[in-house]
Amino acid sequence: MKIEGKLLTLKLGIPSFQKSIKVQEEIPEEEADRQFFRLNKVLIRKSAIYNSLISAGNAFKNELKTLTIPWPEVGSVFIVPDKLLPAVTALIDKFRSEWEEKVERFVAEYPELIEEAKAALGKYFDPKDYPSTEEIRSKFKFNYIFTEIELPEKVQEELKEQMLQQWQDVKEMATTILKN
């Protein structure tokens, strides 16, 4: 079985809105090694739209995995068989549209989230921790590139074995479920 297709490299990024703070002064030197202590300050609450961006990204990657062959050892690189390229392209286009709309909704609510953080953090609020809306928009990443590939015979055989093993695992799981 010869695998012909393209290599899809995906970059999907969501800012964490956390800041690491050293808390070394509060830890007596004789009690512990201070370099092992860090505190994360949450900069904004995780709003419904923020959580929906995370969920949408995970769902997209999971659906993408059903149409592609994951590149071994690399989480965001996939082999797209030529016959599935139209379906993968349609999935990407649909996701990009939804992603951009959700990012814009988040950017619109971002100033309100900053105001909430200001009230919640009190004297620990630092306006320098909060980039502009344009900077925040740019931190939500969705990029991809297709690259022509020709897989060596050995790699094609390994992938074929992987796919056959995955299929066998699915059959065994289905049999177990149906027996119970």
Would you summarize the structure shown here?
With 180 residues, the chain is an alpha+beta fold.
Can you put this structure into words, describing what you see?
There is one protein chain. By secondary structure, the protein is an alpha+beta fold. The chain folds into two domains: 5-149, no CATH class; 152-180. 51% of the residues lie in helices and 19% in strands. The strands form two sheets. The protein has a four-stranded antiparallel sheet, covered by helices on one side. The protein has a two-stranded antiparallel sheet with strand order 2-3. Helix 1 (48-67) runs antiparallel to helix 2 (85-121) and helix 2 (85-121) packs across helix 3. The longest helix is centred in the middle third of the chain and has 37 residues, at 85-121. The chain is extended. The two termini are 35 Å apart. 11% of the residues are buried. The mean pLDDT is 85.
